[in-house]
Amino acid sequence: MKILAKTKDLSHEEWLKYRTQGIGGSDVSILAGINPFKSVHQLWLEKTGQVELEEGDTEYTHFGTLLEPIVRKEFTARTGIKVRQKHMILQSEEYPFMTANLDGTINDNGEMAIFEAKTASAFKQDIWEEGIPAPYILQIQHYMAVTGAKRTYIAAIVGGNHFYCHMMERDEEMIEKIILMEKHFWEENVLGGIEPVPDGSEATTNYFNSKFGHSNGETITLPEEVIPICEEYERLSKQLKDVETAKNAAGNQLKNYLKEAETGIVGNRKISWKQISKSSVDTKRLKTEKPDIYNDYLTQSQYRRLSVA
Protein backbone atom coordinates (compact mmCIF):
# COMPACT_ATOMS: atom_id res chain seq x y z
CA MET A 1 0.00 0.00 0.00
CA LYS A 2 1.00 3.64 -0.39
CA ILE A 3 -0.23 7.00 0.86
CA LEU A 4 -2.57 8.66 -1.63
CA ALA A 5 -3.15 11.79 0.45
CA LYS A 6 -2.64 13.15 3.96
CA THR A 7 -5.98 14.26 5.39
CA LYS A 8 -5.05 16.22 8.51
CA ASP A 9 -5.01 19.59 6.72
CA LEU A 10 -7.10 18.53 3.73
CA SER A 11 -10.12 20.70 2.93
CA HIS A 12 -13.54 19.07 2.68
CA GLU A 13 -13.66 19.79 -1.05
CA GLU A 14 -10.26 18.17 -1.60
CA TRP A 15 -11.32 15.15 0.45
CA LEU A 16 -14.43 14.73 -1.70
CA LYS A 17 -12.26 14.93 -4.82
CA TYR A 18 -10.11 12.04 -3.60
CA ARG A 19 -13.29 10.06 -2.90
CA THR A 20 -13.98 9.98 -6.66
CA GLN A 21 -10.50 8.67 -7.52
CA GLY A 22 -11.13 5.17 -6.25
CA ILE A 23 -13.44 2.81 -4.40
CA GLY A 24 -13.50 3.32 -0.63
CA GLY A 25 -14.65 1.01 2.13
CA SER A 26 -18.12 2.54 2.42
CA ASP A 27 -18.67 2.01 -1.32
CA VAL A 28 -18.43 -1.78 -1.14
CA SER A 29 -21.88 -2.37 0.36
CA ILE A 30 -23.32 -0.24 -2.46
CA LEU A 31 -21.66 -2.42 -5.10
CA ALA A 32 -22.94 -5.51 -3.28
CA GLY A 33 -26.50 -4.16 -3.38
CA ILE A 34 -27.01 -4.20 0.39
CA ASN A 35 -26.84 -0.46 1.05
CA PRO A 36 -30.40 0.86 1.47
CA PHE A 37 -29.38 4.49 0.96
CA LYS A 38 -27.44 4.54 -2.30
CA SER A 39 -27.60 2.51 -5.53
CA VAL A 40 -24.79 1.34 -7.80
CA HIS A 41 -26.21 3.71 -10.40
CA GLN A 42 -25.77 6.71 -8.09
CA LEU A 43 -22.26 5.58 -7.20
CA TRP A 44 -21.37 5.33 -10.90
CA LEU A 45 -22.68 8.85 -11.59
CA GLU A 46 -20.57 10.16 -8.69
CA LYS A 47 -17.37 8.34 -9.62
CA THR A 48 -17.63 9.48 -13.25
CA GLY A 49 -18.23 13.10 -12.23
CA GLN A 50 -21.73 13.28 -13.72
CA VAL A 51 -23.22 14.37 -10.39
CA GLU A 52 -21.78 15.80 -7.20
CA LEU A 53 -20.89 13.36 -4.46
CA GLU A 54 -23.78 12.83 -2.05
CA GLU A 55 -22.74 12.30 1.56
CA GLY A 56 -26.07 10.83 2.67
CA ASP A 57 -27.40 11.77 6.10
CA THR A 58 -25.16 14.72 7.00
CA GLU A 59 -26.49 14.86 10.59
CA TYR A 60 -25.63 11.20 11.09
CA THR A 61 -22.22 11.68 9.46
CA HIS A 62 -21.54 14.80 11.54
CA PHE A 63 -22.25 13.16 14.88
CA GLY A 64 -20.46 9.99 13.81
CA THR A 65 -17.29 12.03 13.26
CA LEU A 66 -17.88 13.97 16.48
CA LEU A 67 -18.22 10.80 18.56
CA GLU A 68 -15.31 8.91 16.97
CA PRO A 69 -12.76 10.02 19.64
CA ILE A 70 -15.18 8.88 22.37
CA VAL A 71 -15.56 5.45 20.76
CA ARG A 72 -11.79 5.20 20.45
CA LYS A 73 -11.25 6.26 24.07
CA GLU A 74 -13.86 3.79 25.36
CA PHE A 75 -12.29 0.98 23.31
CA THR A 76 -8.89 1.65 24.90
CA ALA A 77 -10.42 1.93 28.39
CA ARG A 78 -12.15 -1.45 28.05
CA THR A 79 -9.46 -3.40 26.23
CA GLY A 80 -6.21 -1.69 27.20
CA ILE A 81 -5.34 -1.54 23.49
CA LYS A 82 -4.05 1.80 22.24
CA VAL A 83 -5.24 3.15 18.91
CA ARG A 84 -3.08 5.25 16.63
CA GLN A 85 -4.97 7.65 14.39
CA LYS A 86 -4.34 7.56 10.65
CA HIS A 87 -4.74 10.95 8.99
CA MET A 88 -4.32 9.68 5.46
CA ILE A 89 -6.00 8.00 2.52
CA LEU A 90 -4.24 4.76 1.66
CA GLN A 91 -4.12 3.16 -1.78
CA SER A 92 -3.49 -0.41 -2.88
CA GLU A 93 -0.43 -0.66 -5.12
CA GLU A 94 -1.68 -3.82 -6.83
CA TYR A 95 -5.20 -2.46 -7.32
CA PRO A 96 -4.90 1.36 -7.41
CA PHE A 97 -8.69 1.80 -7.58
CA MET A 98 -8.94 0.46 -4.00
CA THR A 99 -8.53 3.10 -1.30
CA ALA A 100 -8.90 3.15 2.48
CA ASN A 101 -9.48 5.94 4.97
CA LEU A 102 -8.88 4.23 8.32
CA ASP A 103 -10.12 5.44 11.69
CA GLY A 104 -6.96 4.07 13.27
CA THR A 105 -4.41 1.27 13.56
CA ILE A 106 -3.34 -1.01 16.39
CA ASN A 107 -0.05 -2.71 17.22
CA ASP A 108 -1.33 -6.27 17.55
CA ASN A 109 1.59 -8.36 18.85
CA GLY A 110 3.98 -6.69 16.45
CA GLU A 111 1.59 -6.70 13.50
CA MET A 112 -0.60 -3.88 12.25
CA ALA A 113 -4.32 -4.33 12.84
CA ILE A 114 -7.09 -1.96 11.82
CA PHE A 115 -9.42 -0.06 14.16
CA GLU A 116 -12.83 1.12 13.00
CA ALA A 117 -15.21 3.28 15.08
CA LYS A 118 -18.97 3.34 14.53
CA THR A 119 -22.08 4.91 16.00
CA ALA A 120 -25.63 3.69 15.48
CA SER A 121 -29.18 4.37 16.64
CA ALA A 122 -30.94 2.20 19.21
CA PHE A 123 -32.90 0.58 16.36
CA LYS A 124 -29.67 -1.17 15.31
CA GLN A 125 -28.97 -2.72 18.71
CA ASP A 126 -30.25 -6.20 17.81
CA ILE A 127 -27.94 -6.29 14.79
CA TRP A 128 -24.88 -5.31 16.85
CA GLU A 129 -25.84 -7.88 19.51
CA GLU A 130 -25.47 -10.60 16.86
CA GLY A 131 -22.16 -9.34 15.48
CA ILE A 132 -20.82 -6.97 12.85
CA PRO A 133 -23.46 -5.63 10.43
CA ALA A 134 -22.99 -6.92 6.87
CA PRO A 135 -22.07 -3.55 5.27
CA TYR A 136 -19.24 -3.10 7.79
CA ILE A 137 -17.97 -6.64 7.21
CA LEU A 138 -17.44 -5.74 3.56
CA GLN A 139 -15.89 -2.41 4.53
CA ILE A 140 -13.28 -3.86 6.87
CA GLN A 141 -12.41 -6.74 4.53
CA HIS A 142 -11.84 -4.09 1.84
CA TYR A 143 -9.55 -2.22 4.25
CA MET A 144 -7.60 -5.39 4.98
CA ALA A 145 -7.26 -5.98 1.24
CA VAL A 146 -5.75 -2.51 0.81
CA THR A 147 -3.44 -2.61 3.83
CA GLY A 148 -2.55 -6.30 4.07
CA ALA A 149 -3.71 -6.34 7.71
CA LYS A 150 -4.75 -9.71 9.16
CA ARG A 151 -7.46 -8.51 11.56
CA THR A 152 -9.70 -5.58 12.38
CA TYR A 153 -11.20 -4.39 15.67
CA ILE A 154 -14.51 -2.59 15.27
CA ALA A 155 -16.13 -0.73 18.17
CA ALA A 156 -19.52 0.95 18.27
CA ILE A 157 -21.67 3.06 20.55
CA VAL A 158 -25.29 2.13 19.85
CA GLY A 159 -28.23 4.21 21.04
CA GLY A 160 -25.87 6.42 23.01
CA ASN A 161 -25.62 3.97 25.91
CA HIS A 162 -24.51 0.56 24.60
CA PHE A 163 -20.93 -0.29 23.65
CA TYR A 164 -20.02 -3.17 21.36
CA CYS A 165 -16.63 -4.43 20.28
CA HIS A 166 -15.94 -7.17 17.74
CA MET A 167 -12.84 -8.53 16.07
CA MET A 168 -12.76 -9.93 12.54
CA GLU A 169 -10.00 -11.93 10.89
CA ARG A 170 -8.92 -11.45 7.31
CA ASP A 171 -11.01 -13.60 4.93
CA GLU A 172 -9.07 -14.29 1.72
CA GLU A 173 -12.06 -15.83 -0.08
CA MET A 174 -14.24 -12.80 0.66
CA ILE A 175 -11.44 -10.40 -0.28
CA GLU A 176 -11.00 -12.13 -3.64
CA LYS A 177 -14.71 -11.67 -4.40
CA ILE A 178 -14.61 -8.03 -3.28
CA ILE A 179 -11.63 -7.31 -5.55
CA LEU A 180 -13.33 -8.93 -8.56
CA MET A 181 -16.52 -6.95 -7.91
CA GLU A 182 -14.67 -3.65 -7.54
CA LYS A 183 -12.38 -4.33 -10.52
CA HIS A 184 -15.36 -5.01 -12.79
CA PHE A 185 -17.13 -1.83 -11.67
CA TRP A 186 -14.05 0.37 -11.95
CA GLU A 187 -12.74 -0.90 -15.28
CA GLU A 188 -16.04 -1.47 -17.11
CA ASN A 189 -18.34 1.13 -15.61
CA VAL A 190 -16.10 3.97 -14.41
CA LEU A 191 -13.17 3.87 -16.85
CA GLY A 192 -15.17 2.22 -19.64
CA GLY A 193 -18.08 4.60 -19.21
CA ILE A 194 -20.66 1.80 -19.44
CA GLU A 195 -23.80 2.42 -17.43
CA PRO A 196 -24.34 -0.31 -14.79
CA VAL A 197 -27.27 -2.66 -15.35
CA PRO A 198 -29.90 -1.70 -12.73
CA ASP A 199 -30.19 -4.27 -9.94
CA GLY A 200 -33.18 -5.13 -7.78
CA SER A 201 -31.99 -3.48 -4.58
CA GLU A 202 -34.21 -1.18 -2.54
CA ALA A 203 -31.80 1.70 -3.15
CA THR A 204 -31.97 1.29 -6.93
CA THR A 205 -35.77 1.04 -6.86
CA ASN A 206 -36.00 4.22 -4.78
CA TYR A 207 -33.50 5.97 -7.06
CA PHE A 208 -35.44 5.37 -10.28
CA ASN A 209 -38.79 6.12 -8.62
CA SER A 210 -37.38 9.46 -7.48
CA LYS A 211 -35.33 10.28 -10.59
CA PHE A 212 -38.17 9.58 -13.01
CA GLY A 213 -41.13 10.18 -10.70
CA HIS A 214 -43.23 12.02 -13.31
CA SER A 215 -44.06 10.93 -16.86
CA ASN A 216 -44.33 13.35 -19.80
CA GLY A 217 -47.17 11.40 -21.42
CA GLU A 218 -45.14 10.48 -24.51
CA THR A 219 -44.94 7.07 -26.21
CA ILE A 220 -41.50 6.02 -27.45
CA THR A 221 -40.14 3.05 -29.43
CA LEU A 222 -37.74 0.93 -27.37
CA PRO A 223 -34.83 -1.13 -28.77
CA GLU A 224 -35.23 -4.86 -29.49
CA GLU A 225 -32.98 -5.72 -26.53
CA VAL A 226 -35.88 -4.80 -24.23
CA ILE A 227 -37.97 -7.81 -25.41
CA PRO A 228 -36.18 -10.46 -23.28
CA ILE A 229 -36.39 -8.11 -20.28
CA CYS A 230 -40.17 -7.88 -20.81
CA GLU A 231 -40.36 -11.67 -21.03
CA GLU A 232 -38.40 -12.02 -17.80
CA TYR A 233 -40.63 -9.48 -16.07
CA GLU A 234 -43.76 -11.35 -17.18
CA ARG A 235 -42.32 -14.72 -16.15
CA LEU A 236 -41.35 -13.47 -12.70
CA SER A 237 -44.69 -11.68 -12.23
CA LYS A 238 -46.55 -14.95 -12.91
CA GLN A 239 -44.16 -16.85 -10.67
CA LEU A 240 -44.71 -14.31 -7.88
CA LYS A 241 -48.48 -14.61 -8.28
CA ASP A 242 -48.26 -18.42 -8.20
CA VAL A 243 -46.08 -18.31 -5.07
CA GLU A 244 -48.52 -15.91 -3.38
CA THR A 245 -51.44 -18.22 -4.25
CA ALA A 246 -49.56 -21.24 -2.87
CA LYS A 247 -48.68 -19.29 0.28
CA ASN A 248 -52.34 -18.32 0.76
CA ALA A 249 -53.37 -21.97 0.34
CA ALA A 250 -50.92 -23.08 3.05
CA GLY A 251 -52.14 -20.26 5.29
CA ASN A 252 -55.78 -21.24 4.81
CA GLN A 253 -54.98 -24.85 5.72
CA LEU A 254 -53.37 -23.65 8.96
CA LYS A 255 -56.42 -21.50 9.72
CA ASN A 256 -58.63 -24.54 9.18
CA TYR A 257 -56.62 -26.46 11.80
CA LEU A 258 -56.68 -23.57 14.29
CA LYS A 259 -60.36 -22.68 13.81
CA GLU A 260 -61.31 -20.49 16.85
CA ALA A 261 -58.02 -21.17 18.67
CA GLU A 262 -55.53 -18.30 18.75
CA THR A 263 -52.32 -20.34 19.00
CA GLY A 264 -51.28 -23.81 17.93
CA ILE A 265 -48.11 -25.74 18.83
CA VAL A 266 -46.53 -28.33 16.53
CA GLY A 267 -42.96 -29.57 16.99
CA ASN A 268 -40.81 -26.54 17.75
CA ARG A 269 -43.16 -24.13 15.95
CA LYS A 270 -45.83 -21.82 17.34
CA ILE A 271 -48.62 -20.84 14.93
CA SER A 272 -50.64 -17.74 15.86
CA TRP A 273 -53.84 -16.34 14.38
CA LYS A 274 -54.48 -13.34 16.58
CA GLN A 275 -57.28 -10.80 16.73
CA ILE A 276 -55.97 -7.41 15.58
CA SER A 277 -57.80 -4.16 16.37
CA LYS A 278 -57.44 -1.34 13.90
CA SER A 279 -58.89 2.16 14.01
CA SER A 280 -59.67 3.92 10.75
CA VAL A 281 -61.65 6.89 9.48
CA ASP A 282 -64.86 6.17 7.58
CA THR A 283 -63.96 8.44 4.66
CA LYS A 284 -67.16 7.67 2.74
CA ARG A 285 -69.32 8.80 5.65
CA LEU A 286 -67.09 11.80 6.38
CA LYS A 287 -67.33 12.93 2.75
CA THR A 288 -71.14 12.66 2.86
CA GLU A 289 -71.80 14.25 6.27
CA LYS A 290 -68.85 16.68 6.57
CA PRO A 291 -67.74 17.50 3.00
CA ASP A 292 -65.98 20.74 4.00
CA ILE A 293 -63.83 18.99 6.59
CA TYR A 294 -63.18 16.12 4.17
CA ASN A 295 -61.98 18.52 1.46
CA ASP A 296 -59.81 20.48 3.91
CA TYR A 297 -57.82 17.36 4.80
CA LEU A 298 -57.88 15.65 1.41
CA THR A 299 -54.42 15.15 -0.06
CA GLN A 300 -53.34 13.62 -3.35
CA SER A 301 -50.22 11.59 -3.97
CA GLN A 302 -48.86 10.48 -7.31
CA TYR A 303 -46.68 7.59 -8.30
CA ARG A 304 -45.89 5.65 -11.47
CA ARG A 305 -47.00 2.04 -11.85
CA LEU A 306 -45.02 -0.22 -14.16
CA SER A 307 -46.89 -2.79 -16.26
CA VAL A 308 -46.06 -4.99 -19.25
CA ALA A 309 -48.86 -5.98 -21.64
From TrEMBL:
<keyword id="KW-0175">Coiled coil</keyword>
<keyword id="KW-0378">Hydrolase</keyword>
<feature type="coiled-coil region">
    <location>
        <begin position="233"/>
        <end position="260"/>
    </location>
</feature>
<keyword id="KW-0238">DNA-binding</keyword>
<dbReference type="InterPro" id="IPR011335">
    <property type="entry name" value="Restrct_endonuc-II-like"/>
</dbReference>
<dbReference type="GO" id="GO:0016787">
    <property type="term" value="F:hydrolase activity"/>
</dbReference>
<dbReference type="Pfam" id="PF09588">
    <property type="entry name" value="YqaJ"/>
</dbReference>
<dbReference type="GO" id="GO:0003677">
    <property type="term" value="F:DNA binding"/>
</dbReference>
<dbReference type="InterPro" id="IPR017482">
    <property type="entry name" value="Lambda-type_endonuclease"/>
</dbReference>
<dbReference type="InterPro" id="IPR051703">
    <property type="entry name" value="NF-kappa-B_Signaling_Reg"/>
</dbReference>
<dbReference type="InterPro" id="IPR019080">
    <property type="entry name" value="YqaJ_viral_recombinase"/>
</dbReference>
<protein>
    <submittedName>
        <fullName>DNA-binding protein</fullName>
    </submittedName>
</protein>
<feature type="domain" description="YqaJ viral recombinase">
    <location>
        <begin position="14"/>
        <end position="149"/>
    </location>
</feature>
<dbReference type="InterPro" id="IPR011604">
    <property type="entry name" value="PDDEXK-like_dom_sf"/>
</dbReference>
